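Internal ticket - ligand job 343, tryptophanyl-5'AMP:
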Amino acid sequence: MNRPIVFSGAQPTGQLTLGNYLGALRQWTAMQNDHDCIFCVVDLHALTVRQDPALFREKILDLAALFLACGIDPQKSTIFIQSHVPAHAELAWLLSTFTMMGELDRMTQFKDKSRSHAHNINAGLFTYPVLMAADILLYGTHKVPVGEDQKQHLELARDVAVRFNGLHGKVFVVPEPLVTGGGAARIKDLQEPTKKMSKSAEADLAKVMILDEPDAILKKFKKAMTDGLGIIRNNEASQPGVVNLLNIWRAARGASMEEALKHFSHNQYGRLKVETAEAVIALLEPVRRRFQELRADPTELEGILARGAETAMVRAEVMMERVLTALGLPLHGQRFRRARGDS
Ligand code: TYM
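stdout (structure tokens):
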């Protein structure tokens, strides 16, 4: 059991997009055989934006079902809901005392979110990366597969780990980012292809959701923003829309950029759009079917999540005992007996 430990998570804020699938989930499932993987629905993170409680509960379960539908196998990996393991929030507090205001102030996601949620710039939005550092450091994680947009947060997690270790001895593993696959890590908005495809984008046509029906996928690609140049090249600066479609096509087909350019050397945007849509539909159709099965059977899903939380909790407690000890906090008599294997 000396496989490298992998941790990653996604927020249950609306459905996941094709960007999340290609940039994250597909890489996660590929890592399960040779890594010790922990995948988390990070519901506490999503509270930094207002949620309707009844809808939120469903979104959390939807996301867990989607993880499984995308191929996360609970026999191989630990899959759980963040709020089921209280040590995440506890460690976040401890790490916040090792995180500098200036560091958090530099986070581009905070700046973006403060603009898009100007009426609710809560302290959680600011300290969000500390909770993310806690998620990762709690499990002695070696590698964190993420899309490019999360790299800055990961660097902060590394800095916090190094700072803590420098003061208190080698408690945390310093995690490595694993920014997922080239172009696929940067799937762009279909309407504004200079921006990443985000699940929070307002326009429906801007994003392909993993659970979209085939007709909807085709329509979105047909309406994707391109340009008037009439040539299919890999020039992101002048043709971001075309390059995005090429990236999506090749990520869905497992092809290189060279192969994509050869395949589309006819320079017909209409065919590029339709073939990209077809490749995406073929990729997502089995995921949608499995998701529907899982959501139709709440007992199976709840059982998987309960077992995942149990495993995660025991593992998290091992780290919490080390952290509390390193900081000089007196240990609660009963707390760590189970994690130590004492009955
Ligand atoms: P989130 O929920 O926004 O996205 C989940 C994962 O999907 C990646 N991603 C993308 N990749 C490529 N192209 C895109 N357009 C695209 N959009 C999203 C993200 O980079 C991410 O890997 N803060 C994290 C969640 C989190 C986390 C963690 C991740 C909390 N704790 C610990 C890793 C480890 C977030 O908001 O991801």
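Auto-summary: The domain at 189-295 is CATH 1.10.240.10 (Tyrosyl-Transfer RNA Synthetase). The radius of gyration is 21 Å.
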